[in-house]
Design brief:
22% of the residues lie in helices and 29% in strands. It has 178 residues and is an alpha/beta fold. The protein has a single domain, classed as Rossmann fold (3-Layer(aba) Sandwich). Strands 4-3-5-6-7 form a five-stranded parallel β-sheet, sandwiched between helices. A four-stranded antiparallel β-sheet has the order 1-2-9-8. Helix 1 crosses helix 2. The longest helix has 18 residues. It is globular. The structure holds guanosine-5'-monophosphate and magnesium ion (MG). The site of guanosine-5'-monophosphate has 18 residues, from strand 5, helix 3 and strand 8.
Length: 178
């Protein structure tokens, strides 16, 4: 099925699970080369990144750890820019290489906030890995180290991304119909 309804909106398929898996593999390959011997801590930002984190980490073959944190909520179809801090950060990250695992980087507010907090907590090196990146919406200068797929400024759901709670379980990524 190529068109689906979630709440009041209609969505069309945009990125298939095959395309997603291919892009995730390419990111994993880069990480396996770049971070070999660094024993990175992957910090997946919940809820949105759970599918990406799972698929990415299955393809990361170097020694590593994974943990999960939570930040802001996002209601409706546009970012509020409001950040609510980092929940669930129990690890001692002093001197470590930490990889933030995000579902999507839009304005960059969320990821910049997490990045700053991890540096404040003493991480030696903080990298960013995101499934999706919206270059036209990005307002920061922080480099995004690992990008699986670049997308235009459309509202997307699926593969972890929700529309008011629904759609996270979809294996493909869908775009809001006009
Ligand atoms: P930023 O702080 O970079 O502006 O936004 C990051 C967060 O906004 C993401 O983690 C995600 O929750 C939400 N977001 C941005 N774009 C989209 C989108 O197209 N679809 C959905 N479902 N969430 C989005
Ligand atoms: Mg996110």
């Amino acid at each position: 099925m190529n068109s689906i309804k979630i709440h009041d909106l209609t969505f069309e398929i945009k990125i298939t699970s095959t395309e997603i898996q291919q892009a995730v593999s390419e990111v994993a390959t880069k990480i396996n080369t770049d971070l070999k011997g660094k024993k990175p801590l992957f910090l997946a930002v919940l809820n949105g990144s759970f599918m990406f984190a799972s698929d990415l980490l299955k393809k990361v073959t170097i020694d590593c750890e994974i943990s999960f944190v939570k930040v802001a909520s996002y209601e409706g179809t546009s970012s509020t820019g409001e950040i609510k801090g980092l929940i669930g950060m129990n690890e001692d990250i002093k001197g470590r290489t930490v990889v933030i695992v995000e579902d999507i980087v839009d304005t960059g507010n969320t990821v910049e906030n997490v990045w700053n907090e991890l540096k404040t907590k003493g991480a030696a090196d903080v990298k960013i890995a995101t499934l999706l990146f919206k270059p036209l919406a990005y307002t920061k200068t922080l480099p995004i180290d690992y990008i699986a797929i670049k997308v235009p400024n459309d509202f997307l759901v699926g593969y972890g991304l929700d529309y008011n709670g629904l759609g996270r379980n979809l294996a493909d990524i869908y775009v809001k119909s006009n």
